[in-house]
Structure prediction request, 300 residues.
Amino acid sequence: MTETISIRWHSRAGQGAITASTALAEILGRHGKFVQSFPDFGAEKRGAPVVVFNRIGNERIDDVSHPAVIDAAVLLDPSLLASCEVNTHELLAGLKENGLLLINSPQKKLKMEVGTAQVFALAASAIAVAEIGKDIPNVPILGALVRILELAPMEKFKRDLAQSLGAHLPAEIVAGNLRAFERGFAEVTTITGKPGHKKIVCAKLPGWRDMPLGAAIQNPGSSRHYATGNWSHQTCEWTKSTCINCQLCWPVCPHDAIIVKDGKMLGVDTTKCTACGLCVVACPTRPKSLKIISKQSSEI
Prediction:
């Protein structure tokens, strides 16, 4: 490494971008590199957009501002683009000529224009679900990033990662994450995207910077405009035949995704459901009338 490498992560709260960025900095710091890791986000709410930055170099790094020019952009959740919470211009902003774009997707080809970026893809969510049972794709994406940027030998980095994760996670989860890291390192592939750099303008709902002072709610019912379920790779499925209409699921749902009308359970609103699983826990039937299932990820 002859110069400072800058990385920008685009993610949602709860997907582990901050954890992965911090682990990357800590581990490469032990390897003798000078490093930075710092996030930029608004409300600390699961599913809210998060941006995280890394700098890695062989010399002391005094600049603590957001990198204006980056070597790699990482997209942990393609639904950020599909929902217009991040547009392609923001994703590719500052990316160097022939810079790297790493996305969490099983796609073999992108529909979006990516300029001169070299595009890499990994089905990180599928790997995470298979190895740790949860859609937290940060560690497989970290494995892919270490490989494509040639940051460290896989086995050496994995040993240090085990130490970092073992400080706050059970041994079983650490083992699953190490398998996910290995798969991410091995399975990341190069894919194609459209040339050009067309700026797409989205009709976006107000972000945290646009809110009134104190986040005062000026109009009632505004939360209904936010499709909280549009980012999750999982949702909740309701089985009418086993449901006893107890409605114990309704009061525990934090996103008003349980549909009840005239005293009867009618189903689950998948545009609001984030697959938190609270309704499944509350459901008393055997077999459960509510269960978490996977859904097709957003294509970009």
User: Anything to note?
Assistant: Residues 171-187 form the longest helix (17 residues). The mean pLDDT is 88. The chain has two domains: 5-194, 227-294. Residues 82 and 298 are 7 Å apart (CA to CA).
